[in-house]
Design brief:
The structure is a homodimer of 349-residue chains.
Chain A: H1 28-41, H2 45-48, E1 54-58, E2 61-70, E3 76-77, E4 80-81, H3 82-95, E5 100-111, H4 116-132, E6 136-145, E7 153-162, E8 179-182, H5 188-198, H6 214-223, E9 229-231, H7 237-249, E10 252-256, H8 264-273, E11 287-290, H9 292-304, E12 312-318, E13 325-328, E14 334-336
Parallel strand pairs in A: 5-6, 10-13
Antiparallel strand pairs in A: 1-2, 2-7, 3-4, 5-7, 8-11, 8-12, 9-11, 10-12, 13-14
Chain lengths: 349, 349
């Protein structure tokens, strides 16, 4: 079964004989792993769709299934913790398939020496976040690794949700003419983590936007089931998510940077650290790609929801420059928004 | 939401202000975490049943859902690797609920510096193991942590399966009079790992028994749907699994040690290292608790299957000493087989 001798590292992985931090960054290097290693190995139609999770039919029901491991540090940061992220992240992956999240699993890898109080607090937060998102944690697993082989706690959550009949949301569904909506300000989560790590202080501290988006998605689907794509722009930010969608659907994406909602303190922090908010992780925002005729109504519905107050239309799907994302800049020029190669912020989620 | 000030570490966790290796060992300390921390925090009926996974009803279908993280070292050992274990382990957890495993997720936490070839080999093995168990890997996630904060690779697998109508398998279902069956030799996996770590050499090397048990379970259910309990005795071994079942069902369990199939080399290694095979992990064996009238037929079916050739009846469920497990020893005495406190073999799976 093991064919050590004949296994050949496929291109372009061959350029990296060892795993580097960027392989976990959600950008080009992460994609190379998925595209050139995971998809060929596990080949099946579901995995190849490269959505935030899988959809599958069991006994006539359309189910969604997703998994994510969380290795963020620090464990606690303004606006959240690894435990909120772990619940909200998997809830959001399911919601991005149009599913109603139902059941979650929690798997923890604890490092020997983790204070019991820290674990207790994190478990309380996990439970509160699950209640807040209306999902049940129904199964779990705990492993302990020796001191120096972990980092206090890593959390995996997986989840199962139910996709309502008639809903068909997938990256491939983007069509030229579709409008691109964002549910609120971008870059908050990444810059909250970064400002803690760098010891930056602002008049109003930057808080993570970690939040469960299933309620917002339910409202949007109530308004129109004709939503083509949903995606939560986490690792790699809006830029990487839209590049993946452009490639999956074989369409171009044209953004207008001036329409992006960005908090002033996030813009300031990005400028100070030389970062681009388009590449910074979000944990409580969604991108929606919808037909032009439904865009205004869906935007209005989003703005009625507490998590969508700052929603905006930020661009559209075009038939030009297929597979690529461009953006009109603040001074009216146009730039290419490339997939990032490695990552700006290691261990952001 | 975070109530740091008022969170009080519940007894008996208070005796351990920090996580120790034994909290991941599958024995008493692991149980304390589950019973006194996780179950109260996430309280719901499904989690409280403490099976190998959860069962849930979605749109009239009975589904099984399970998760497990794998931190075994070394990564490769006689008879298997972390990758086989990760697939077979979750397949088995689903099978122990009587479910047909359908879909798996794979979440990996990679340590910076992991050779790409090692990752490639492990992914190939994951894929081969999935094909061998007739399950599809449909979704995944990869994170990278900095060197010194992991141990090459940790793998989480979660899985979804379908429970056939009429099947009701749960630890609570053990009834006095039921027979207890084991599907084959015990202690192989744990002693394979241990002999690598300790550099022990035997004439015939001890190989892990890592295997997917869903085919065996399907045959058993074909023979009789009247199976009360199934459990794969992994961490903590047969002793811990049966103690959990005795406690869950409020019954006593009486074993006859002389009936246990144990390979001579495993018995020798256990004696050398002062270990008891009843407490050593298995990764391709199951315990079945079945009504006495069905026991012989089910045993016969098990023996027809390649993974059940050495199956044996090893004891019965009794109405005496409820919550406890006893065993007749080789010289005819009776001993109490207690839950182990911590663990014999850290990072066995």
């Amino acid at each position: 079964m093991i064919d050590f001798d004949n296994w050949v590292c496929p291109l372009p992985l061959r350029d990296y004989p060892h795993i580097v931090m960027g392989h976990g960054g959600g950008g080009k290097l992460s994609n190379d792993l998925v595209e050139h290693l995971f998809v060929p190995a596990f080949h099946n139609a579901t995995l190849s769709s490269l959505a935030d999770g899988a959809t599958m039919t069991v006994g006539g029901q359309q189910l969604a299934f997703s998994t994510d491991s969380y290795v963020v540090r620090p464990l606690f940061f303004p606006g959240g913790s690894i435990a909120d992220l772990a619940i909200n992240g998997t809830v959001n992956d399911l919601a991005m398939l149009g599913a109603t999240p139902l059941f979650l699993s929690v798997g923890m890898i604890l490092e020997e020496g983790l204070p019991m109080n820290t674990l207790g607090n994190l478990v309380d937060i996990l439970a509160a976040a699950a209640r807040n998102a209306h999902v049940q944690v129904v199964t779990g697993d705990t492993k302990v690794v020796d001191k120096g082989h972990g980092d206090q706690i890593y959390i995996n959550t997986s989840g199962v949700g139910l996709i309502p009949t008639g809903v068909d949301i997938a990256p491939q569904n983007a069509r030229p003419g579709d409008r691109i909506l964002i549910s609120g300000t971008i870059g908050d989560h990444g810059m909250a983590i970064m400002s803690v790590r760098e010891g930056l202080e602002f008049d109003s501290p930057i808080r993570s936007d970690s939040a469960p988006l299933n309620g917002l998605v339910a409202d949007m689907l109530q308004c129109s089931t004709n939503i083509h794509v949903l995606r939560d722009p986490t690792r790699g930010g809006v830029a990487s998510s839209l590049n993946e969608i452009a490639k999956s659907a074989g369409v171009g994406i044209a953004l207008d940077e001036r329409q992006f909602p960005v908090r002033p303190e996030v813009a300031a922090a990005c400028e100070l650290l030389g970062m681009d908010p388009l590449y910074v992780a979000n944990e409580g925002k969604l991108l929606a790609i919808v037909p032009p005729e439904d865009a205004d109504a869906i935007l209005e519905t989003m703005r009625q929801h507490p998590l969508g107050q700052d929603a905006a239309i930020i661009g559209e799907v075009v038939s030009e420059h297929r597979g690529k994302v461009t953006s009109r800049t603040g001074i009216g020029g146009t730039r290419v928004v490339a997939m990032q190669i490695g990552e700006q912020l290691p261990r952001i989620c």
